[in-house]
Design goal:
Elements (H helix, E strand, L loop, with lengths): L2 H26 L4 H8 L3 H28 L2 H21 L3 H29 L2 H32 L4 H4 L1 H15 L14 H24 L4 H23 L13 H31 L4 H25 L5 H22 L6 H26 L7 H39 L9 H10 L14 H40 L1
Helix pairs in contact: 1-5, 1-6, 1-8, 3-4, 3-5, 3-9, 3-15, 4-5, 4-8, 5-15, 6-12, 6-14, 9-10, 9-15, 11-14, 11-15, 11-17, 12-14, 13-14, 13-17, 15-16, 15-17
Length: about 500
Amino acid sequence: MDNTSLKSFFIFFTLSFASLMVGVDFLALAVAIDPLIKTFSINLTMIQWILTAFAIGDSSFLVSAGRLADIYDRKKIFAIGVFGFTLSSAIIAASNNIYLLIFMRFLQGISSGTMITSSIAIVNSYCQPKQRAGWISALLGFTGFGMVLGPLLGGYLVQNFSWRAIFLINVPFGIICLVLIYFCLPSILSKSAGAKLDKIGFILFTLTIGLITVTLSKGQSWGWLSPLTISCLVVSILLFVGFIKIEKSISDPMLALSLFCNRNFVTANFFGFVCYFLMTAWMIIFGFYLQTVLSISPSHTGIYFSPFGLALLLASPSIIKLSTRFSPLSLINLGFLISTMAFLFMLLVLNQTSILPLAICFGLFGLSYSAVNSCSVPMALSQIDKSQAGIGSGVSMMLRWLGSAVGAALITSLYMEFTIDFTDKLLTQNSKLLGFQQVIHTLLVNHQKISYLNSIPENIKPLLEQLMYQAHLHAIQNCLWLFIVLSALTLLIGIVCQTRK
């Protein structure tokens, strides 16, 4: 191995280690939903905030981090992201207050966004155009490996120690990654290095995206026409208008608006938005379904989730080879075709006694996620100058995490509506259970089981338990139909885009 190859290996190894950290942390949380509910006595809405806070921090700072990576040393920006991710993980692990935990998840999201954006910018600067898709796909493969480890390691740690351990494990990973950055990663400066930071634009854009993400996440629970929701939307629009005016009037804008005139950039990021929407919504409903509805242990839940990450890992080499023979859009369309089939199969096997067919469907969905995400990122950046690699990757990842935030908000709201509406319908058909309507509503909102209440007669409990199970099953089925329709429509849009080229 010559010096150039050895250098490339160590750069890739360092970046992939950070991808591994993000992957482990991301799906490890899926097996900790029920323990978090019990520890802090919270409902699924607060769990949504734990997930959404990460997405808010990530999406609101991705573009800003991208601009920082364009005008400062990308190695330093990457190192700052890793340090912040490690520190916030340690504080989360020690937290005894749900609001501190949510805030630190927000900071963890900012750090994650900084890591992801700067790492893609480094790849875009260091690699030749033909190598970029392969490197990005390989990095996502390491993220997939982390997602394989995440549920398994997370399930083991939650089962034998505590949910806190899944965050504490990030600390040694983070320290190792910082050492690798110091010794293995060279300083990388873009053509924009030394440009002035548009501080006002930086602040306005970060506030705008953060406020939009919060509004989209909480609009359903606040009420879309409530004064609070409308006020947030109005303020975010005013902030954005102010940001656009400033960007048009300065020589070194934070965000090059010309990016959105690039058809490849816009189209690819639309596919990325939908991909992250589906992935986050799927993770939430099945994390809840397996642990709370089916009472599966965290460790076994991790095993059932692991095919998703395993598919990401195994699919990466194949996608690297296919990307040299087929267009990114062809592979993206293939990905959405597979996801449509995966959700349809989930719907068909959902009520089976064995969970194994469902786990296989999770692997199929992981394959589709790998194809869409691996190809949409390089497609979005394919016609962008290297000097804009940071801001381009920041916008791309911001739109994906906005999709994640919208997915988390919408699916939790719809899931509750589906369960309560179906429960009310069943209760009206059984006069014996009608008097327990308020009790059932309370249990559904707080995600508790009938066995938690001693006031219900023993002969009624089995009937109510069956009713609640049917309501949850109905809600999962409706959510899967939503996924099927959205995935199929996106596939149709992709086919139309491909035929017009």
